[in-house]
Amino acid sequence: MRIRESLTFFLIPFLLFAAACNRTEDFIIVRDAEKGISVDIKDLIEKKPVFYKAEFKGSAFEFFVIKINGEPKAFLNRCRKCYNSGLGFRFDDTHVQCRACNESFPIEEIAHGVGSCYPISLNSRVEGEKITVKLEPLSR
Prior knowledge:
The chain starts with a helix and ends in a 7-residue tail after the last strand. The longest helix is centred in the first third of the chain and has 20 residues, at about 1-20. The protein has one helix and eleven strands, in the order αβββββββββββ. By secondary structure, it is mainly β. About 15% of the residues lie in helices and about 40% in strands. A hairpin with a 5-residue loop joins β7 and β8 (about 105). The strands form three sheets. The chain has a five-stranded mixed sheet with strand order 1-3-4-5-9, with no helix packed on it. The chain has a single domain (about 25-140), classed as Rieske Iron-sulfur Protein, CATH 2.102.10.10.
């Protein structure tokens, strides 16, 4: 009986920890990214990112589109400082947090972040109800 209690004592916290560290974003797969990416923005909710995965010139990348103060913006899902970690960001209702260095800052400050911790802005433009992301700079 003690073995079962000990196992339960150690197993439950481990499972809770593993679940908390798990990435929870759902990614929309973008096909034919070589032609450019155009994303619908009419259904964006203020401060709620939508995550995408795409491939360009043989390299996979993740990005997100988020509406801040009514303006849609596109970012790589990578921290400028922690780029090589590939861990990206997590969001709650008011803050964005780097998964690698754990820096956290208000969503409204996403373009500036804290120090060198912030997502990399993508070259994009809004055209009607779509945001178009230019991919050519990604290949450099």
